[in-house]
Design goal:
219 residues; two-stranded antiparallel sheet; disordered C terminus; eight-stranded mixed sheet; alpha/beta
């Protein structure tokens, strides 16, 4: 369902998937997830194929998922703010999902640039109980992950084997520095945007989080 909410620079447009009237169609909502898209200047939007498939995968395990366009993207007001304003918008989206789904686990997720925003914002927010990074830009010197590296919250990663912007070896070096609990799925033959393999992103999230029970690990 299409929704609008007030971001730091004005109206933000979004899509709320996997829920109806604050409840899943046939069962309690498992988690309320905010899912951020790749870099706006490189064509990233809430409709990016891998983001769409990620939302569908999370929906299949019972999550309500809010995708939204960062400021200056699509019909969202404002202009690109190099991560500062985008983190503000993400935090406001977390507020929205927390109010819509009280007493429901709150997860932060994102892809590429959006994963940096999600991981860092979610790691610092005490309400967020799980972090999900898809193709995180850990090889880029202009992105740092201090909160992500320090947190003991569960962390889940999806990575393309042939990622040309964040090589797998760099992600694995970053992953080794992270505190437990953590888990990772590598999609063989996939590039940064998972061209031709976007459906596998949703499948991988199902596999990683299908039996995840909370901060203390799995079922």
């Amino acid at each position: 369902m299409h929704i609008e909410f007030q971001g730091g620079a004005g109206r933000i447009e979004g899509l709320l998937d996997g829920a109806r009237g604050g409840q899943a169609d046939s069962a309690p909502v498992r988690a309320a997830v905010v899912l951020a898209h790749p870099h706006p200047s490189q064509g990233g939007t809430m409709h990016t194929k891998a983001v769409f498939q990620a939302a569908k995968g999370l929906g299949r395990i019972g999550c309500a998922v809010l995708r939204f366009n960062f400021r200056g993207v699509g019909s969202s007001f404002g202009i690109f703010d190099h991560g500062r304003g985008e983190a503000e918008d993400f935090a406001i989206a977390l507020n929205l999902m927390a109010s819509r789904y009280p007493d429901t686990p709150l997860w932060a997720a994102g892809m590429s640039f959006g994963s940096w925003v999600a991981l860092e914002t979610g790691a610092a927010d005490p309400r967020v109980s799980a972090l999900i990074g898809i193709s995180p830009p850990v090889a880029r010197d202009d992105y740092s992950f201090p909160h992500t590296l320090e947190t003991t919250k569960p962390k889940f990663f999806i990575q393309g084997e042939l990622d040309e912007l964040c090589p797998l070896k760099d992600l694995m070096a970053f992953y080794a520095r992270l505190k437990e609990p953590k888990d990772i799925a590598v999609i063989h033959g996939a590039t940064h945007l998972f061209d031709g393999r976007t459906a596998e992103v949703g499948d991988a999230l199902e596999d990683l989080l299908g039996d995840f029970t909370g901060v203390n690990g799995r079922a």
